[in-house]
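ok so I'm stuck.
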Amino acid sequence: MREDTPGVVACKEGPDSDAVVQDLLRKYDGIVTDATRVQVLFTAHLEPLPKPPPNCEKIQTIYNQVRRYVPEEFINDPLYDPPNDEDEHKAKAIQKARAEKRKEATKKKKRARAAASESATGAAAELTDEAQGKQPTQQEKKRTREI
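replied:
not stuck anymore, here's the structure
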């Protein structure tokens, strides 16, 4: 950065390439703004975001696991209200789907590991058979054709 152009950076890919100039100063609608203008923009023109919808899993967890440790003075807070039946069913369905997905992923990994170990043991057995001069059986020939 040069002193006469603050906030402007020139980037080169190599020593002989042309410089790409990038202005790092704050811009709002393409107009360079100073720090006070940015503060005004962030305080005056920002609209508050709406609250996100309640997460049915979190509501169930808070009620079932956390509520018993909450002091009595805060127990009446709406955060610790019991979940309604609909939210409870949604939470259980989400948890069940997650468990199914995890179970499928585990099965897939086990199958891949079993296939890898089977091919490795089959290859090792073929090498020992060849070393001993044995001929492969029909079943072993079929297995090697399938692979």
